[in-house]
Specification:
Layout: H1 4-11, H2 14-45, E1 48-49, E2 57-58, H3 62-70, H4 74-103, H5 110-122, H6 125-135, H7 142-150, H8 165-190, H9 194-202, H10 207-235, H11 239-244, H12 256-266, H13 270-294
Antiparallel strand pairs: 1-2
Helix pairs in contact: 4-8, 4-10, 5-8, 8-10, 10-13, 12-13
């Protein structure tokens, strides 16, 4: 029996196929040249010791063995990265969801407020980080002035203290990134039928009950998407610690991507940097797999 798919293929003339390939070829060639080939090259490079200037020497899994067993700061950097991910993702979701609930209620100038809250997302991250570095200045920054005015103390040394540097990076990152998830949640909330809230009101449900029993269950697909994408992007954080702290003090704010940059473009150990990149890739894939596997327990698509 000839299926509909086979019939459709038979109706496509050879010239049309060539035209389709012609239109797709620029994108396919770009994807091949700038994505597939570099990914394959980095995987191959992770098995070599290549000082950039000089001959590459095949070392097998030595880069990975060194990374996991002999590198004195690698596991601290993994901890720094997970610390950032945990703090950033939780705060981002709380702030974005809270503002989305507020902006879908009876509040004036909703469109303007959404624009204002989303503006940091489309601003260059480096520019955001530079502004926040000025705000964090210990003696004459705006945050230090606030502490002196209302508490009488200078406040913490945000960027010079190993205890406060990572929280400072997290706070700046939340400010710069919560608007994206906020828009996703706003769209998800506005797609919920109003009849469900009317039925809840008839049953005597208050505002909190409506959000808990109607909004949150029906918003779980948006929550799932936002959580997955936020975790993936936060595991690749680079610009914020690079501009704010330079990875310091010490290695307190050095993340995996920042460490990759240091090894590859400051120490010129390209093979070792590639092994860090692939270790990060495996970490991202593992966390994403767990998220997709666990979604069956809490995500409701109907």
């Amino acid at each position: 029996m000839i299926t509909n798919e086979q019939q459709r293929r038979e109706r496509i003339a050879p010239g049309e196929r060539l035209a389709v390939l012609g239109f797709l070829s620029p994108n396919l060639l770009g994807f091949l040249a700038f994505t597939i080939i570099p990914i394959g090259a980095s995987l191959a490079l992770s098995f070599y010791e290549w000082p950039l200037i000089g001959e590459a020497v095949f070392t097998g899994f030595d880069n990975f063995v060194r990374l996991f067993t002999r590198d004195p700061v690698f596991w601290q950097i993994v901890g720094n990265t997970l610390y950032f991910v945990g703090g950033y993702v939780i705060l981002n979701l709380i702030v974005s969801l809270s503002l989305a609930l507020w902006l879908t209620s009876r509040v004036r100038a909703k469109g303007f407020l959404r624009f204002v809250f989303f503006l940091p997302v489309v601003s260059p991250m480096v520019a955001n980080a530079v502004v926040w570095r000025l705000l964090y200045t210990e003696d004459d920054g705006l945050i230090a002035w606030f502490f002196k005015t209302f508490t009488g103390t200078a406040g913490p040394n945000w960027l010079g203290s190993a205890e406060w540097a990572m929280p400072a990076v997290i706070l700046m990152s939340v400010w710069a990134g919560f608007g994206y998830n906020m828009i996703i949640f706003v769209a998800g909330i506005e797609s919920i039928p109003s009849s469900l809230y009317e039925a809840g009101a008839l049953d005597g449900a208050n505002w909190w009950s409506k959000q808990w029993h109607i909004t949150l269950p029906l918003l779980t697909p948006s929550l799932f998407f936002a959580t997955v994408m936020t975790i993936i992007s936060s595991l690749q954080v680079f610009a914020q610690p690079f501009v704010l702290t330079g990875g310091g003090p010490g290695s307190a704010t050095t993340t995996l991507v920042f460490y990759l940059y240091q090894q590859g473009f400051q120490s010129y150990e390209m093979g070792y940097a590639s092994s860090i990149a692939w270790s990060l890739f495996v970490l991202i894939m593992a966390i994403t797999f767990v998220q997709f596997h666990s979604q069956k327990k809490w995500v409701h698509y109907s």
